[in-house]
Amino acid sequence: MIISFDIGGTAIKGGIARSETDIVPLGRRPTPRDDFAAFVETLRGIIAETGEQPNGIALSIAGVVDPDTQRLICANIPCIHERTLGADLEAELGLPVLIANDADCFAMAEAGLGAGRGHRIVFGAILGTGVGGGLVADGRLVNEAGGFAGEWGHGPIIASAAGDPPVAIPAYACGCGQKGCVDTVGGARGLERLHKTLHDLDLASEEIIAQWRHGEQKATRTIDVYVDLVASPLALTINITGATIVPVGGGLSNVEPLLAELDHAVRARILRKFDRPLVVRSECRIEPGLIGAALLGLKAEAAA
């Protein structure tokens, strides 16, 4: 039995996994962001609730493990940021610990139990507040030892002009320290940023999408530019990885007409031609972080 955790800046959610088809969510507790001892006790408390001793624990975290140092980069939870968290938790809890990025866990969940079932190479894309991704090949997460594979949201790649007719796009500053990243335009905040640039209007992403779906001219222009900007780097990612399915998660994945537009644009720009949807809505709609972490933990336990 594995206990998986989805660690967010607001809440920690747990789950019990006995097999790939037997993953049961547990409760959720507030995340202690500034107190490592309290963080450990929260995990210990959830483990105790099960009344069983697990074979190990697996964590999905909105952060990245450096594959060289095994230190976790997780700025939104200061008490675990820059720790060798796996080793620290193993010492505290006396259990094997596996840690993975939340986008990687999403990709793993989709490859194992979601839209990626039956596909050899699955690229899971996150279009939420920002942009993320994870890559699974032959049922194995590429980032099993940590690392940055799948992070298509970062790098100075955004086109300097987009849309029909083309309009100039600034190289927006990104939180990663670079300029012109997909993350600056591809998520919900990026969509709002584009609308402000194009029309000098401050609107929430939900309102922009609602107006677009009703045919409003300015919102339609914003979506045209958005799709043009996001489709090219996603197409390049697919060409490089050879992915044959791209499940999409995050808030914008709920807008199926937007995914259809993005899918059409991406398929027109890749080398391999598909006569079926390639960029699709994810199927693991509830707790993909828990599911992905559980699958990784179960695989690690089986290999031990």
From TrEMBL:
Keyword Zinc recorded: yes
PANTHER family xrefs: N-ACETYL-D-GLUCOSAMINE KINASE (PTHR18964:SF162), ROK (REPRESSOR, ORF, KINASE) FAMILY (PTHR18964)
InterPro entries, A to Z: ATPase_NBD (IPR043129), ROK (IPR000600)
Keywords: ATP-binding, Carbohydrate metabolism, Kinase, Metal-binding, Nucleotide-binding, Transferase, Zinc
Coiled-coil regions listed in the entry: none
Origin organism lineage: Bacteria, Pseudomonadati, Pseudomonadota, Alphaproteobacteria, Hyphomicrobiales
Broad class of enzyme this protein falls into: transferase
Protein name: N-acetylglucosamine kinase
Keyword Endoplasmic reticulum: no
